[in-house]
Amino acid sequence: MDERISVIIADDHPFFRAGVRQALEKEPAIVIAGESENGDDALTKVIHLKPHVAVLDIQMPDITGLEVAKRIEHLGLSTEVILLTMLDDRKVFLEAIDAGVKGYVLKDSAVSELRKAITSVYEGRHYISPSLAGLLVDRKGRSPAPPKLRNLTPTELRVLGLIAALKTNQEIADELYISKRTVENHRVNMAKKLDLEGTNALLKFALQNNPDL
Question: Is 2.60.40.10 the CATH number for 5-136?
């Protein structure tokens, strides 16, 4: 049984795909399951090949990588998504978070970062290119902190800050010297206090209202 991370690559530029493929084929823990040059074909391959990870250019013919990610989320498929982008666009980034996207990588650094990004999302963690860190916070014209933040305890605020830093539940537990189950309970309680619903709603809120900034 092949225990490697299966990946499909979707980008309409063949030379870029070839460069990414060449880089990833050097990784013994990763296997390329397929390639696509447009969004429609990428979605078809995800449905039929069921790869662990789909690396999608955010701008493709037919349907965009972001739209493919939304359809993967809607269909309840287990494939994790990494979006490749040339854009420093906070609105698109937050829309991607809503769509369940775990990886967001700047295209210029894709070849050097994708191995780490693929491993991270496969293990259930988020990965954002360091050069895109500005997308995590919008200091200019930032609105005041929502009043409901005052309903959170100091510990919950610390947990919220670590969520904004893209830490997993286990990483938060280790940092705060509490159990993973306690972290999960904090997340449930915070979502209730903040009137948040949906799998990624708390993460999006944390990124927009990081109490550590």
Answer: no
Q: Domain coordinates of the chain in residue numbers?
A: 5-136, 147-208
Whole-structure pTM value: 0.79
pLDDT grade for 130, boundaries at 50, 70 and 90: confident
DSSP output for the chain: ---SEEEEEE-S-HHHHHHHHHHHTT-TTEEEEEEESSHHHHHHHHHHH--SEEEEESS-SSS-HHHHHHHHHHTT---EEEEEES---HHHHHHHHHTT--EEEEGGGHHHHHHHHHHHHHTT--EE-GGGGGGG---TTPPPPPGGGGGS-HHHHHHHHHHHTT--HHHHHHHHT--HHHHHHHHHHHHHHTT--STTHHHHHHHHS-TT-
- Please determine, for residue 37, whether its predicted confidence score (pLDDT) is greater than 90: yes
CATH numeric code, 147-208: 1.10.10.10
